[in-house]
Amino acid sequence: MAGASPTFEPADRDFERRTRESFARQGAMAHLGAELVTVKPGFVEIAAAFRPELSQQHGFFHAGIVATVADSAGGYAAYTLFPAEAGVLTIEFKLNLMAPADGERIAAAGHVVRSGRTITVARFDVHVEKGGRRTHCATGLQTIMRIEGRAAVRG
User: Fold this and answer.
1) Which pTM value belongs to this model?
2) Is residue 72 within a helix (H) or strand (E), and if so which, with residue range?
3) DSSP tag of 54
4) DSSP 12
5) Which residues lie below 8 Å from residue 104, measured CB to CB, with a gap of 6+?
6) DSSP structural state of residue 6
7) 57-69 in b/e burial notation, b at 16+ Cβ within 10 A?
8) Mind listing the pLDDT tens digit for each residue in 26-66?
9) pLDDT, tens digit, 9 for 90 and up, residues 122-131
10) How far is Cα 120 from Cα 146, in angstroms, rounded to an integer?
C-alpha cells in the first residue's frame, strides 16, 4: 500500500530501555528540557516546552532548537532498531521550516524510512502546539550511521 509506514523489528528486544538510557545521557536534550515521549521500533517522539531561553528575537522557538530536537528524534528512531552494542551518529540532515514555531511546546516525531546495516534514513516532522492547536512547522530527512565499538560517554 503506497504511503504506509514500514514495520520494523528491533535487533535488541530491550530497545526501549536502551534508547531511554541513551537519551538520559544526552546533555543537549537535558539543557533544552526535552523529554522522550514515545519509543517504538523505528519511531520516537521528543517534546520540549517553550522557555524564553529557547527563543529567537520574535519570541518563537529558535530554528536551531527545532533542528536539534528534530535531529535527536530521527537519530533515536534509527537507534531503536540497532543492536545493543551499537551507537548512533547523524551524517547529515535537511530541515524545511514551514511555519514559525510559535507556541508553548514543540514535538518532533522521527520515523525510520529505511534501516540498513550501516546507514539508516529517517524523516522527521515537528509540530508546535499553542492554545490547543498543532501546527506542522518543520519537516526533513536525515541520514544516520550506525557505529560499532565506541562506548557511550557517561557524565
Assistant:
1) 0.92
2) helix 63-79
3) G
4) S
5) 49, 50, 129, 130, 131
6) P
7) eeebbeeebbbbb
8) 999 999 999 999 999 999 999 999 999 999 999 999 999 99
9) 999 999 999 9
10) 8
